[in-house]
């Protein structure tokens, strides 16, 4: 049996009386793209933030290659965090930096690369994502799709092993949504990173992922291949992916 | 009756706990940021950038308030001193008031209004738009990235702007006294030179340095912890509350600190 790269075991998290995760069990495997789906506000982004360390669970364990994230030493944790990259839902680009500096920031601040090497790496990513003419522009001057590409370039510039995408297509038109999905698939194939994508785009997201997990009422209702979820007759799964949820259930 | 009594006690307790937590957060924020100033790689470019914003771009407003403060002091001083036939001491009155008290305090308040509010709002927006979270995911220390260059820039800018305020203010007093009211210009300049001792200037600069630390720490930390505020934690309201609180707290702390420093210096 394959060992998961990241494993959630009975993870619980509450914000006051709001119990967002009520015993989440989830496995994410190396080199695969896992899509996390579920209703708005069901805790998908909270789940992602636990992986990157922006939040900590109230109880339960998160294992990284079998090691408990909470009990590993600071150095190993830092090493793991270095392999991660996070693409935020609203991009989280720095308004006061231009596109080039936004992408270069993680390298400029945390790597020992020389200026020329950083420039070459950033330019390479910008060319790959077809944003090489926007280097001097500021985020406020870019369209939604451009901002997404800049955020993706920043997420990929450090050559991460794991990339977490928090609703990467929010606010985009259908053409651009398709473009972002193709981009994730293409770069996942090209760079071989492990992807975790939180998304509402059903069934498009199934085309770019090898695994799908559905979060509902604080628990993982389903996890498996995209083909299996389409055939699933678990109560709540079929109605959700077919968009037949009653408004009272939202 | 008893319900309202206990409710008031509960509210008082909540306010006290919040205030202590907030004070602790601000103190730790300052300590962490201050230590990071001396941790390589040094952020020279960012320090220059923020010195330009806090210092250079506040110059006009400091010069304007400085000259009018000096002119008002000159006028008020003249009408008070002339009653005792002591208008010759106008230069000393203007210079000492400015260098010891008004220069550092008014400069700090003007910088709080212009740059402090901007710092709180900018960092608050960074918090609500997840830019600070983005720094953490990139393994970049957000306090070092956001606060450390700003505190260095303030430590450089506040004393220099205070010196500009003092000089322009003394010139403003000259405009009111000798130029407008016809007092002896030579006497004004002589009294300015004669009355000021090094301790006055040092005291003024000590105050300016203390205010630099207070204003920058309060404004940056209020923006940084926008999401932890008791009222209106997130969104535009959160930023607005953080900015208002930052400016009000900074101004109140400037006056309290001014009294304490004056008490120990005299």
Largest sheet of chain A: 6 strands, mixed
The name of the CATH architecture of the largest domain in chain A is 3-Layer(aba) Sandwich
**In the residues of chain A, how many domains can be counted?**
2
Contiguous runs where pLDDT drops below 50 for at least 5 residues of chain B: none
By helix and strand content of chain B, what is the structural category? mainly alpha
Describe the structure.
The complex is a heterodimer of chains A (250) and B (266). In chain A, 36% of the residues lie in helices and 24% in strands. With 250 residues, chain A is of the alpha/beta class. Chain A has two domains: 26-55 and 72-83 and 162-250, P-loop containing nucleotide triphosphate hydrolases (Rossmann fold, 3-Layer(aba) Sandwich), CATH 3.40.50.300; 91-159, no CATH class. In chain A, a hairpin with a 2-residue loop joins strand 9 and strand 10 (219-224). In chain A, helix 3 crosses helix 4 and helix 3 (99-110) packs parallel to helix 5. Chain B has helices at 2-37, 44-54, 59-81, 90-128, 131-137, 142-146, 148-181, 185-195, 198-224, 235-265. The model of chain B has no long low-confidence stretch (mean pLDDT 91). By secondary structure, chain B is an all-alpha fold. At the A-B interface, helix 2, strand 6 and helix 3 of A face helix 4 and helix 5 of B.
């Amino acid at each position: 049996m394959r060992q998961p790269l990241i494993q959630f075991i009975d993870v619980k998290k509450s914000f006051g009386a709001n119990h967002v995760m009520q015993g989440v069990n989830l496995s994410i495997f190396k080199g695969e793209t896992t899509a996390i789906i579920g209703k708005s506000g069901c805790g998908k982004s909270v789940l992602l933030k636990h992986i990157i360390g922006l939040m900590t669970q109230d109880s339960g364990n998160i294992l990284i290659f079998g090691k408990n994230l909470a009990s590993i030493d600071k150095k190993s944790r830092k090493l793991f965090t270095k392999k991660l990259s996070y693409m935020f839902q609203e991009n989280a680009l720095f308004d006061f930096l231009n596109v080039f500096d936004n992408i270069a920031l993680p390298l400029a601040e945390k790597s020992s690369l020389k200026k020329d090497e950083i420039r070459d790496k950033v330019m390479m990513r910008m060319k790959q994502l077809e944003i090489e003419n926007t280097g001097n522009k500021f985020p406020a001057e870019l369209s939604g799709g451009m901002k997404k590409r800049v955020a993706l370039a920043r997420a990929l510039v450090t050559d991460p092993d794991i990339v977490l995408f928090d609703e990467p297509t929010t606010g985009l038109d259908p053409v651009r949504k398709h473009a972002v999905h193709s981009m994730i698939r293409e770069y996942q194939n090209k760079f071989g990173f492990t992807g975790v994508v939180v998304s509402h785009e059903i069934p498009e997201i199934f085309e770019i992922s090898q695994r799908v997990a559905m979060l509902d009422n604080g628990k993982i209702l389903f996890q498996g291949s995209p083909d299996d979820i389409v055939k699933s007759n678990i109560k709540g799964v079929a109605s959700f992916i077919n968009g037949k949820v009653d408004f009272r259930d939202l | 009756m008893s319900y309202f009594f206990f409710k008031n006690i509960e509210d008082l307790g909540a306010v006290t706990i919040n205030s202590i937590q907030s004070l602790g957060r601000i103190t730790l924020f300052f300590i962490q940021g201050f230590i990071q100033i001396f941790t390589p790689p040094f952020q020279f470019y960012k320090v220059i950038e923020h010195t330009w914003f806090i210092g250079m771009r506040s110059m006009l407003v400091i010069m304007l308030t400085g000259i009018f403060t000096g002119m008002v002091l000159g006028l008020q001083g003249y009408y008070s001193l002339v009653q005792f036939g002591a208008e010759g001491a106008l230069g000393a009155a203007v210079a000492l008031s400015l260098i010891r008290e008004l220069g550092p305090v008014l400069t700090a308040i003007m910088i709080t209004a212009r740059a402090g509010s901007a710092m709180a709002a900018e960092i608050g927006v960074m918090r609500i738009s997840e830019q600070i979270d983005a720094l953490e995911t990139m393994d970049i220390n957000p306090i070092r990235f956001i606060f450390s260059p700003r505190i260095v820039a303030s430590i450089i800018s506040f004393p220099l702007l205070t010196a500009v305020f003092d000089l322009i203010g003394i010139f403003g007093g000259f405009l009111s006294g000798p130029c407008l009211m016809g007092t002896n210009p030579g006497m004004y300049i002589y009294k300015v030179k004669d009355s000021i001792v090094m301790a006055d200037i040092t005291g003024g600069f000590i105050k300016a340095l203390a205010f630099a630390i207070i204003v920058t720490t309060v404004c940056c930390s209020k923006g940084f912890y926008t999401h932890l505020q008791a009222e209106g934690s997130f969104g535009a309201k959160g930023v607005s509350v953080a900015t208002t609180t930052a400016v009000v707290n900074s101004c109140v702390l400037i006056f309290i600190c001014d009294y304490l420093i004056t008490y120990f210096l005299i």
